[in-house]
Amino acid sequence: LDGSNLTGIAGGVVFVDEVVPSGAINGSNMVFVLPSIPTSGTLHLYINGILQRAGAGNDYTISSATVTMTWAPRAGSVILASYRL
């Protein structure tokens, strides 16, 4: 399926892969900002290659483009985010 027969679809899905959110990774900062606002439920956030769980009581929450961790990633950690717009 190559999509050549699809009609009547406005816009399209945009994938944002492996972006680094802004914010200090210093062992005390817990707030990071994505470069754009993900479609609800599409964010996959990885710290040092480990997928983090979203939602209250889990690893992080998200509001608009702001990610708030429930713990501060250690200095030198690698944070990557993938999502859809």
Please give a structural write-up.
The chain contains no helices and 7 strands. The chain is mostly beta strands. Strand 3 and strand 4 form a beta hairpin.
What's the total number of strands? 7
Strand order of the largest sheet: 1-7-3-4
- CA-atom Rg in angstroms: 15 Å
Shape: globular
Number of helices: 0
Report the order of strands and helices: EEEEEEE
Quote the average pLDDT: 91
Label the structural class: mainly beta
Low-confidence parts, pLDDT < 50 over ≥5 residues? Answer: none
Q: How would you describe this structure in keywords?
A:
85 residues; mainly beta; four-stranded antiparallel β-sheet; three-stranded antiparallel β-sheet; 7 strands; 0% helix; 33% strand; globular
